[in-house]
Design goal:
14 helices; Peroxisomal Thiolase, Chain A, domain 1; two-stranded antiparallel sheet; 2 domains
């Protein structure tokens, strides 16, 4: 297997793009990544997307994007892994290059969510839950995460206000990201005053519905070194799964897919949690940040809230998370979020994150989670 590097990145601003189609957003990100790399050649394109059929009325999406980007007749496939679809697209691209099947491959994450009313989007998102035993009975993803949060609060004697530092941190970092949707800082008081969505989860616990696209161009390390930009090496790319339904798990507060995916990534990269300079965590809800930090070995069980309270997740801390706003501050265009996490990790490792730069960052981890912890895709990037 060949070593693989990321040689180009591109992204659209995350927003409510009323006047733009899913095709337009994807093509903008693709063109930006190719321009960043200074490379015209593309052998294949993998498009990570969750809901194009449900929300945009468009399947056969990868071929549509390849056509619009002037890439025909290259291999073009859509990759779906719920909210982890963007991360899955990079994993597919990485495997294609590592195996020698292709040399230059684009991984794109794209989602267009704002053309439907909230009820329609909520129903579409529920298709990533167990259709027979969860979604079929009317439960939403917010409600599933609310149950996890309530159980966590009960088991660890936590208060809702203990989760505030996660949202405060994400918004602080998003305020320094020109492509983020929510570019304003918040206070713990703002967090506690936010309206409840599904008790105990409130609006500021939750990532917002939005549109966006991000892309990465990957190539063999031998070719990457000849590119316009210093390459960022993919030191690990792993995936692990768990049951789709929460009720089937022995302990719903142990996110086994997240733990397994991280464990495999550490082994592949020959690293440990202490070696990670920043972690782009899948903060769709504050409880997801908590469970992920504990599953990935950055905090013992029940201690992630203490980690946040001590400021250790801030850019100046020992494990900075969501460094350009994360899903909460940047926005969460579901199928694209994993690709945004990876683009932002590359920016940090290149030293190009501007006001949000983590000083001395050389190793970054990005993890995408689909469903309620049913699939986790972890990448470790290095310079």
């Amino acid at each position: 297997m060949r070593d693989v590097g990321i040689i180009g990145i591109g992204q659209t601003p995350v927003a409510e793009h009323w006047g733009r189609s899913i095709r337009d957003l994807a093509v903008e990100a693709v063109q930006a990544a190719r321009q960043d790399a200074g490379v015209e050649r593309v052998d294949a394109i993998y498009v990570g997307n969750m809901l194009s059929g449900e929300l945009a009325g468009q399947e056969n999406l990868a071929t549509l994007v390849a056509d619009a980007a002037g890439l025909l007749p290259v291999e073009a496939l859509k990759v779906e892994a719920a909210c982890a679809s963007g991360g899955a697209a990079l994993r597919a691209a990485c495997l294609a290059v590592a195996s020698g099947a292709h040399d230059y491959v684009l991984a794109v994450g794209v989602e267009k969510m704002t053309d439907l009313l909230t009820d329609g989007v909520t129903a579409a998102l529920a298709t990533a839950a167990d259709a027979d035993y969860e979604a079929g009975h009317g439960i939403s993803f917010v409600a599933l995460n609310a149950m996890l949060m309530r159980r966590y609060m009960h088991e660890h004697k936590a208060r809702h206000e203990d989760f505030a530092p996660f949202s405060v941190n994400s918004h602080r970092n998003a305020a320094r990201n020109p492509r983020a949707m929510y570019r304003h800082e918040i206070t713990p008081e703002d967090f506690m005053a936010s309206p409840i969505v599904s008790d105990p989860i409130n609006i500021l616990d939750s990532a917002g519905i939005c549109d966006g696209a991000a892309a990465l161009l990957v190539a063999p390390a031998s070719e990457a070194r000849r590119g316009r930009r210093p390459p960022v090496r993919i030191a690990a790319s792993t995936c692990a799964t768990d049951t789709v339904g929460l009720a089937e798990r022995k302990d719903p507060l142990v996110w086994q897919s997240v733990a397994d995916s991280a464990r495999l990534a550490y082994a592949q990269a020959k690293m440990a949690p202490k070696d990670i300079d920043l972690f782009e965590v899948h903060d769709a809800f504050t409880i997801v940040s908590v469970l992920s930090l504990e599953a990935c070995g950055f905090a013992d069980r029940g201690s992630a809230l203490k980690l946040a309270a001590e400021g250790r997740i801030a850019r100046e801390g020992d494990i900075p998370i969501c460094t350009l706003g994360g899903l909460k501050g940047r926005g969460h265009p579901v199928g694209a979020s994993g690709a945004y996490q990876l683009v932002e990790t590359v920016l940090q490792l290149r030293g190009e994150a501007g006001e949000a730069q983590v000083k001395g960052a050389r190793v970054g981890m990005a993890q995408s989670v689909g469903g309620s912890g049913s699939v986790a895709i972890t990448h470790i990037l290095t310079v």
